[in-house]
Amino acid sequence: MAEHTVKAFDADITRLRGLIAEMGGLSEVAIQEALDALVRGDEDLADRIISRDKKIDELEMEVDKLAVRIIALRAPMADDLREVIAALKIAGVVERIGDYAKNIARRIGKIEGRSHFEPLTLLPAMGELASEMVHDVLTAYAARDPQLALEVIAADAKVDAFYNSIFRNVVSYMVENPATISSAAQLLFVARNIERIGDHATNVAEMVHFAATGDYPPDADG
User: How confident is the model at residue 89 (pLDDT cuts 50, 70, 90)?
Assistant: First the structure.
């Protein structure tokens, strides 16, 4: 009976991790496609990104239900409980990452004159950095790799620096080109969403580190 219980618990944990991996994969694709749609002004792709976000929401609900069931039926202790709680928290954060990608997609139809809009060229590199953070933190979660989680946390400083640079650049452009204020404001919203994706990848990295070691990284809020 004890062996059966252990196998059942392991199966539940494997399922939990699989659901989060699926959520993460969908969120990662959404970010990359949102950036692509932004550069090309592809509103059809933007609409598909927005529509597919429902799948990420559904997966988060499935994680919630499974985590609650594991805690109720298996009564996990110590490391096992930490694993379940971390998965529950990570799913919520990954769902928010998907929401930020969706928010970027919603801005795409509101940017005018994109072929001559210089600030638009600055966002893909920032988005690529944030996307890499999401990819790496999902890899860290799958591998239970606290060192890679720390590297993701360190990378967030680059995304923040990018955001500050883009903010200054876009505001200057708005001052020099008043007719672009509306579109430039949309870009600032996009940059802010990318910056928040980096912040949320950092939050996941802190939880990955906690799940793997029992400790939050130094300077983490916990």
Answer: very high
For residues 108 and 100, give the distance between their C-alpha atoms in angstroms, rounded to a whole number.
13
Alpha-carbon dihedral sign for residues 213, 74, 11, 59: negative
Show the tokens assigned to 109.
């139809």
DSSP 214: S
Using one digit for the tens of pLDDT, what is the confidence trace for 92-135? Answer: 999 999 999 999 999 999 988 776 677 778 888 999 999 999 99
Measured on CA atoms in the order 201, 29, 212, 80, is the torsion positive or negative? positive
- Match domain 2-213 to its CATH number in 3.30.930.10, 1.10.10.10, 1.20.58.220, 3.20.20.30: 1.20.58.220
The tens digit of pLDDT for each residue in 144-162 reads: 999 999 999 999 999 999 9
Residue type, 57: D
Query: Has residue 202 got a pLDDT over 70?
Result: yes
Domain definitions of the chain by residue range: 2-213
Contact 203, 148 (CB under 8 A): no
User: Measured between alpha carbons, how far is 12 from 6 in angstroms, rounded to an integer?
Assistant: 10
* pLDDT at site 1: 41
